[in-house]
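Researcher: I'm preparing a figure for a lab meeting and need a structural model of a single chain. I don't have an experimental structure, so a prediction will have to do for now. The sequence is pasted below. Please return the structure as tokens so I can convert it later.
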Amino acid sequence: MNFTSCIYLLLIILTTNHFILSHSENCNPDDKRTLLQIKKEFGNPSQLSSWDPTIDCCNSTWLGVDCDNFNRTYRITGLDLENINLPKPVPIPPSIFNLPSLNVLYLAYMPNLVGPIPPSISKLSKLNYIYIIQTNISGEIPYTLSQIKTLVTISFNSNKLTGPLPASLSTIPTLAGIAFNDNQLTGTIPESYGSFPPLFTGLLLSRNRLSGKIPASLRKLNLADVDLSHNAFEGDASMFFKSNILTYTITLGSNSFAFDISKVGLSKDLNKLDIRHNKIYGKLPERLSELRYLHKLNVSDNNLCGQIPMNTRFDASCYVLNKCLCGSPLPACKT
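Model: Understood. Here is the structure written out token by token.
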């Protein structure tokens, strides 16, 4: 082979290698096909134009897509989609459940996302965090969620979910919190919720149609944040007040709770206490005046009596409409 032929052959090899390298990609081909199918099931919205089949889906240009580049598996681990303007009402794309390495699923602010959360969600066996927020998803919370033993947070705020709270959620060993605010859930809090794992610190169920008494088993929980406001609960809720644990917020307003507030403990870390519009009675604990982080307080419209603790720094609207509560900022107590 002469010199000219060798040079020609070398150019062919270099050109071929460059072509192969320029067209190689890290994205797992199965996951890429699944993402393109998800795009199709969403109705090919314009915001997902970056989901281009000619581009590597692990090069950080695909909107809302996270890959496992650290461990170099290049599987899809996160799907973070919000404010996607779906061209017409569609259900949750069933192909989402064909992403076996998904850790985070975030679907938010999509009014055209409708229909139920399918039971096949349990196929996401590595899921840690699921957020479906402010959509028109409806139907019951699927019991199959409890089959995902890796879940840490479940947030389904501001949808149209109905039916009961799934009792089996307490069997998820890693669960740290649930947020089902602003739905149409009915029934009572399951007795099993007292058996949530030690990591569980967030119980957020406000603005539903839940009712009944709080199970005594919930006394075993150490909640940092609890919000049961705007439901039809009744009876005792004193189990949420503890002086020896880290508690940030207790929001129980607009129910029919009735218990003696003078006998509860208050965490030194409390920054919000809202018990307005209930039937709570007794005298406000003196410890209220010692809570340096407390910046939101409302105890109005209850059956409270006695002197308001000194130095509580809140205006009269936070205390009005009680049976016989008195002292600054309300009128002075009668001697």
